[in-house]
Amino acid sequence: KAHFNYAKFLDSLFETRKKQMTDKTKEEYNNMSERQKQEVDPRAVDVRIIGALVEYLLDSVKHYGIALQLGQKHCYQALPRMLAMWLEFTSLGTEDDNIKDDSGQNAHLKEYQELMNKAIEDFASEIPEHLFYTALPQLLSRVVHNNVETSANVALILRNVIAKYPHQSLWSCGWLRFSKSEEKKKAGVEIFLGAMAMLRKSDRDMLDTSQTLFRFLISIAAFVPKTNNSCVKMKNPKFETELKHFIPPIQAALSLSPGALGQSANADVFPSFVPRMRAFNTELRIMQSKAKPKKISFFAVPSTVAQRD
Q1: Torsion region of 99: left, alpha or beta (phi above 0 gives left; psi -120 to 50 gives alpha)
Q2: Tell me: the pLDDT tens digits for 43-59?
Q3: Are the beta carbons of 281 and 296 closer than 8 angstroms?
Q4: Closest by Cα among 159, 245, 169 to 196
Q5: Going by C-beta distance under 8 Å and a sequence separation of 6 or more, which residues neighbour residue 239?
């Protein structure tokens, strides 16, 4: 708790000083002539302000990370803030090498960005994977980052989470391999290949088959019915790995168990007994709205049966 509170204190100092410097800069800008205003580069101003306060930022991130290593009570406050500070700070100035930099501020900034990424790289192996699982949407939104080291760290964290919890995280991360963005698609393929290399054969096969499963679901979403019928028959595809090895994408199965944040990294942090998929219902329901969304259902087997087989 001490590290968490100290991180919050440094965080508040950073935000307070940043606001003071921003307000002062705006006042100075308003007092400039039109010619002087045209010479001001807002990006350079941001770099100068953050650069002056970077030690508060770096120390705050470090203490948030230490707090998450030592305890999980403040996960939902500390982790999102730590990730936001890291992702935003390391994006600053990385595309602005042409900014006029008489004071060497850009070089100073990049040095601290490297230190920040080194700290996050260490935390990626020291903070339990199920904590990072709670922040998957935040990480996935920055899987392609304009800082190369930051992109590598995002991929490292995602790879570790998928390798630790492949059945749950594939539903959040699987879309990456089918993204319309070639950069995201490439990143997704590399992340999954890296995770699969860390898994036993049965889980590797499951993740490999998940590509076929996702293609099937995408084809259902893209299907355009030729009639106004509310139901149509569909063919059940064959999958390389049986569906009973897949956890259905329902909230109860994909959410951490109550009290999971107080358990060790080796404990079972997800519900132990959830149904497994058996087969898709061949009856596809078409919703009667303009976009014609589809509703699919599946048959399930108890988790005990799937695990025994």
Answers
A1: beta
A2: 665 666 676 778 889 99
A3: yes
A4: 159
A5: 209, 212, 213
